[in-house]
Amino acid sequence: MPINIPNDLPAARIFEEENIFFMSERRAHSQDIRPLRILLLNLMPKKIETETQLLRLISNTPIQVDVELLQTASHTSKNTPSEHLLKFYKTFEDVREQRFDGMIITGAPVENLPFKEVDYWEELCEIMRWSRTHVYSTYHICWGAQAGLHFHYGIGKYPLRQKMFGVFEHRNLSPRHMLMRGFDEVFWAPHSRHTEVRREEIAACPDLEILSESDEAGVYIAASRDGRQIFVTGHSEYDRMTLAGEYRRDRERGLPIELPRHYFPGDDPGATPIFCWRSHASLLYSNWLNYFVYQRTPYDLSQLEREGDMQG
């Protein structure tokens, strides 16, 4: 079954061109099943690009999914047309009384700021606190993973001497874990960040387990032992040319930026990168949706509050 999105969302036109199956709202509502409800908190500046990348991955499962797009009210986006935000995005006050099977919290280009200096930090903390009783499983990406690890478990965020930028080799540390089911022993995934979390802090937390890491990029995937919190420090959702776009943007701005590592063939920025992480990304999201959302979430979402209270 496909993802359910509005017909006039920009992603719909892209998915038609890519022959990706999606379902219109009208057709989805005529089916006598309960689709998964996924809340996407989009903190990235280019929201249309990010929502398209993530919706593409969410659609690659046999499960019907209804997606609600969420933005913070305490931050004004400068890189997404206001008409798009008004038409397709809600704020926390709009969804506060609702419950969701899953939530995705994206990264954000604010990793050099202390958490408390991010203008929407208090609002994000309120959303993450609310998610304990109103969302079954939350998937955190890059800075969103750092923010979630800090909020839920007190894990620190540390500056890197050089930006972690490129596509890196990772090891599957827990092949029997359901999130890692079907993964190769070694796989590739992109990173783009100026800060890191440290393995020793995560390993010292009894409620967390490290599922994948890289010799170059460090911890990649960690999860709470109950599967309610998933943390991914990279960007498996990135398209083939996303890192190239970031590299050229920073070069044009005169910022100190090195070539993304293991990305351009022969380190030639004019060469087309090999899209070597696409199957990993699809498997990661389908495993999360299947094993940690669809298979576990209560059919009656009102039960979430009681389970969240037990989670503490």
From TrEMBL:
GO terms for biological process: L-methionine biosynthetic process from homoserine via O-succinyl-L-homoserine and cystathionine. It is found in: Cytoplasm. One of its GO terms (molecular function) is homoserine O-succinyltransferase activity. Its EC number is 2.3.1.31. The keyword RNA-binding does not apply. Keywords: Acyltransferase, Amino-acid biosynthesis, Cytoplasm, Methionine biosynthesis, Transferase. The active site is at 142 (acyl-thioester intermediate), 235 (proton acceptor), 237. One of its GO terms (cellular component) is cytoplasm. CDD domains: GATase1_HTS. Substrate binds at residues 163, 192, 249. Its main location: cytoplasm. The record marks 111 as: Important for acyl-CoA specificity. The keyword Cytoplasm applies. NCBIfam families: metA. This is Homoserine O-acetyltransferase. It comes from Harryflintia acetispora. The gene is metAA.
